[in-house]
Design brief:
single chain; mainly beta
Length: about 400
Amino acid sequence: MKMKKKKLFLSLLCAMLLTMLFSATALAASTVATIGGKSYTTLDAAIKKVKSGQIIVLKKNVTYTKPLTINRSGKSFTINLNKKTITFANKNAYLNVKKGTVKLSNGTIKQKATDGYVIKVQKGAALSIANGTYTGMIENKGKTTITKGTFTNPYKKRDIYTGFISNYGTMAINGGTFDGKQRNTLYNEGTLTVKGGTFKYTPDFYGYDKVGSPEVENGALLTNANKGKVTVSGGKFLSNTLCLWNDDNSTLNVTGGTFTSQLGGCFLSKGKTTISGGTWSVKEDWGNGYIYGGTLTVKDGTFKSEWSTFETYVDTVTIKISGGTFKSTAGTDSPAMLISFNGKIQVTGGTFTGKNIWGYWCDENGDGKITVKGGTFNVKELKKEGELL
């Protein structure tokens, strides 16, 4: 009798162990995310339960056809993508950070649609990206900080009027690699700070439009518009056309960085632009900067171009140059390093060097005025036409 009870007990124990084993296996198979030791069958469920300071670890690749919304007011947490991938299957699906403070790291988030967003950060929310790979457009209306990562845009049609990464709130970029390809890489109407990173804008077409204005036709790597504020202290900027476009009523402050333009100049400004450093170069026969409005103040920096250094076209424009190193690689038949068709250029410092180029040219038939009270000009001749005022 005792033997039968023992066999029955062993049978029940085996059944219990098998049940527990099968349950654990089934749970592991259905686990999409974890928080500490707790498992969740969907990432959405983990997001709804996460507490401040906790880390959600993604365990599987997941695909969404609708927005993945984070709506956790007052919560600050991390999503460790854990080398997994979140895929948004159409342009109506994206990571929607509506409320809360979220950190992303260690994985991939991609948008399959060529004209869709991968991330949107709403007003009042905050996002920080530590690293990872992100494909698709990003829009920020809250607060976003990017430390590192690879950011690409698969858009195949030329579109110079929208940004691959658009900021309407507060954004800080400290590093990473960004390539907008057929879209402006960065578009800003808020407050944008760039301390590092590599930025490219490489549309498959650049050149003259119907009125001969490549800088207007082809957009820019970074466009600052609608009272936006941009501060650049570092980073590498490479563009097939303009690197920077500072539009009406906007403010651009550059203290460092490397800016290389293939065609159209390094920057075009209609707002308030201040340059206190950086290395600027243009590969084709264009100048470094074209000023169509507002003011340009140059305190320092290294500028190299085949054509002129700066040109102004509007009678309300003022360019003030108090320092910097300027070099022209012009051939034998080239204009001046400083050109004023209209507006004022005031030089109190800086070194201007160009074997086959004039120091400045002032359109005496227009409203252009150039005042030289300092600086060193190692050029063919100081002036080509007009009067020294």
